[in-house]
Amino acid sequence: MSVDHYEVLGVSRDASPEDIKKAYRKLARQLHPDVNNADDAEEKFKLVSHAYDVLSDPEQRANYDMGGQASFGGFGPFGDIFETFFGQGGSQRGPRSRKERGQDALLRVDVDLKDVIFGVTQTLEVDTAVVCESCNGSCASPGTQARRCDICGGSGSLQRTVRSVLGNMVTQSPCGSCRGFGEVIDSPCPTCAGQGRVRATRSLSVDIPGGIETGQRIHLPGQGEVGHGGGPAGDLYLEFTVRGDKIFSRSGDDIIATIEVDVLDAIEGIEVTLEALDGDVVVPVKPGTQSADVITIKGRGVTKLRGNGRGDLRFGVQVLTPAKLSAKESELVKKLRELRKPAPPTLAGAQQGVFQKFRDRLFGG
User: Residue 88: which residues within 8 A CB-CB, separation 6 or more?
Assistant: First the structure.
């Protein structure tokens, strides 16, 4: 014989979820075996509990309204049986805690190239979940507290007997009244809506190590989101992107740049002081320097993330040949040609281009 779940709870078929919950709680208090000694109280209590399980679940209720059969535990009519054998419906395990561990969070952080040479301490603004200050994570309004559930007696679960092909089996499921917590909050905290946590922006000081590279992460345990009910915070992961510089770039632990040298300075040699990312640096240009030569300044690169010391600062040389000369300059060049008597240009065969040679020497290709 089929049972009308709406009739069991005494509600109309268009009853709201809140009306269904109120009807269930009222009947459960009347029929619970601990308070009602009538012979049929236990059987009625099971019918009421099952009706509520079906109608309080939107998916099962929709299936039931269309004439389908409500499932037990999401696995069909044998769901509770499987739960009994596999640890979900056997011995009572007690109520579940409202305090849950918060989620881990990932924050992407941009950092300048000059800041990763030695490392930097940076203050980050993190949008996250923090403990509600009004209720201190209790989820209840200030001045109130949760009360023991009068449906399950604080156990957080209800037992029922299910007839199956294996005989009558006692199963256990979360209490629908307290949702398995064993306690009911009649007056949820208005600040956090009974969640025990709120969204907020907090400042976090982070030591970013020297040598960090784009895509690398730092793990900060316990700096993620606070969990429901003021539970312990998850972890925070920082993923870095090293911003480029207009002049300098990076190759591993080395910093590289291009230096333009006048052809006369390349011929005679010159020593010049340039401004690097970490201060001035003296760059010696040797006599006879050619385009694509590389000038290396030891120990002026990025601090090695794993290991000791720093990389190097490397300058790729580009020799500049003047496109126009004054009459006097042109006369001097002619005199130089007469003195040097340079050989005419000749074919040199298939050789690596100057630009490719320049790149290979700088980037180690």
Answer: 73, 82, 172
DSSP 8-class letter at 302 = P
- Which of 81-90, 111-120, 151-160 is modeled with the greatest confidence? 111-120
Rounded distance, CA 319 to CA 292, Å?
A: 8
Higher-confidence position of 337 and 130: 130
What local confidence, expressed as pLDDT, does residue 364 receive?
63
What whole-number distance in Å separates Cα of residue 37 and Cα of residue 31? 9
Q: Are 243 and 112 in contact (CB under 8 A)?
A: yes
Which tokens is 330 given?
């042109």
Distance CA 55, CA 42 (A): 20
Q: What length does the chain have?
A: 365
Place of tokens 């925070």: 236
- In this structure, what DSSP letter does residue 229 have? G
Q: Is the pLDDT of residue 238 over 50?
A: yes
Could you tell me the pLDDT band of residue 84, with boundaries at 50, 70 and 90? very low
> pTM of the prediction?
0.64
Helix/strand/coil for 140: strand
More confident residue, 237 or 96: 237
The tokens describing 258, both together, are 């291009």
Distance CA 60, CA 74 (A): 9
Phi, psi of 5 (to 5 degrees): -65, -35
Question: Which of 187, 156, 193, 181 shows the shortest CA–CA distance to 98?
Answer: 181
- 37 token code pair: 């000694």
Q: Report in angstroms the alpha-carbon separations of 237 from 102, 300, 337, 348.
A: 14, 30, 65, 55
- Tokens standing for residue 307: 């290991």
Q: What is the pLDDT of residues 241-267, one digit of tens each?
A: 999 899 999 999 999 999 999 999 999
Residue 273 tokens, joined? 């002081």
